[in-house]
């Protein structure tokens, strides 16, 4: 009986100890969850900033019931700024090559860098720690690109300024040295040009040298065919444009025009008598009842001359100038 009583007592004691442990564990977990209040840590770093400008980096967070212990900023694992509220002064900077902190514009949630250089292209990191008892720490990081803009405006050259629909042409676009290298995109009459066997695009860029791109358009290009089909007759033009961009902070463009003419496609076969209408008129009169065929044969030659006159005048003018006689001799005749 005594042995049974002793074992029963031990069991009750063991159950009591386990229950107390569970209660304490739950209470401690609840306490930790209440104390650990650092959350919603977010970092804001400019994706791109122009070389020589200032850049403000921001670290936003919520502490609720906890107190802030420190905020630390790193560039590529090197600490350059620390903010500890309990210290005096709370802000402290550390020497890192290329970094100049503007102390008047920096605090617990942000740090401002003056006169950024290309060397500051890289990874920035914000580390926030809450105060005792847990000193919970959270980290966020983001990349920043420092952009060196080209000092010269883009330039474009065309190998031809006047073509027909059967001609090819080539254009070259260059832009000054930049970091990173500029992107060059081609357009013709607002249609973007992509590389194909009939739309040949080259691109060349080396660090420390201008960026270069060329465009060669062959007459069988689908873009040109679509444009030509929608063109009005006689003379019209193509607008060739190259657009230069560097990330989202720099965009410029340059464009030139090419005159396009194709007389072959604007002369009706009826005007040239190539459709066999003469034979039909002899037997059946004027089958299409057109004033340019049949009995109205008289206006054919004048109409054809009016079509050809602009081009004939263009090529004949230099010859006339060379053959022009002095006014005195004309008077004598």
From TrEMBL:
Where are the annotated segments for Disordered? 274-294
InterPro entries from the xrefs?
Ig-like_dom, Ig-like_dom_sf, Ig-like_fold
Provide the Ig-like domain boundaries.
Answer: 52-129
> Which top-level group of life is the source organism from?
Eukaryota
| Coiled-coil annotated spans | none
Under which name does UniProt file this protein? Ig-like domain-containing protein
Q: Which organism is it from?
A: Anopheles atroparvus (European mosquito)
């Amino acid at each position: 009986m005594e042995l049974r009583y002793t074992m029963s007592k031990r069991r009750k004691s063991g159950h009591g100890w386990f229950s107390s442990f569970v209660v304490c564990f739950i209470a401690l977990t609840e306490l930790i969850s209440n104390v650990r209040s650092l959350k919603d840590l977010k970092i804001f770093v400019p994706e791109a900033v122009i070389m020589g400008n200032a850049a403000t980096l921001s670290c936003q967070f919520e502490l609720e019931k906890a107190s802030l212990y420190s905020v630390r900023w790193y560039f590529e694992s090197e600490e350059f700024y620390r903010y500890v509220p309990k210290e005096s002064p709370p802000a402290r900077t550390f020497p890192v090559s290329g970094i100049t902190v503007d102390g008047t514009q920096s605090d617990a949630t942000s740090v401002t860098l003056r006169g950024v250089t290309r060397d500051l292209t890289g990874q920035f990191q914000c580390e926030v720690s809450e105060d005792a008892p847990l000193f919970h720490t959270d980290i966020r990081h983001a990349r920043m690109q420092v952009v060196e803009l080209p000092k010269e405006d883009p330039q474009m050259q065309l190998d031809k300024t006047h073509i027909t629909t059967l001609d090819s042409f080539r254009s070259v676009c260059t832009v000054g040295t930049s970091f990173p290298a500029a992107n060059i995109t081609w357009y013709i009459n607002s249609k973007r040009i992509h590389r194909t066997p009939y739309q040949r695009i080259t691109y060349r860029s080396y660090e420390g040298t201008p960026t270069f791109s060329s465009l060669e358009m062959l007459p069988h290009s689908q873009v040109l065919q679509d444009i030509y089909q929608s063109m009005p007759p006689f003379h019209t033009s193509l607008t060739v444009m190259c657009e230069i961009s560097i990330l989202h902070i720099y965009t410029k463009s340059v464009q030139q025009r090419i005159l396009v003419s194709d007389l072959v496609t604007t002369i009706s076969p009826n005007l040239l008598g190539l459709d066999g209408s003469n034979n039909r008129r002899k037997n059946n009169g004027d089958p299409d009842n057109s004033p340019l065929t049949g009995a109205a044969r008289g206006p054919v030659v004048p109409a054809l001359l009016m079509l050809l006159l602009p081009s004939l005048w263009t090529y004949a003018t230099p010859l006339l100038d060379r053959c022009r006689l002095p006014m005195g001799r004309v008077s004598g005749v």
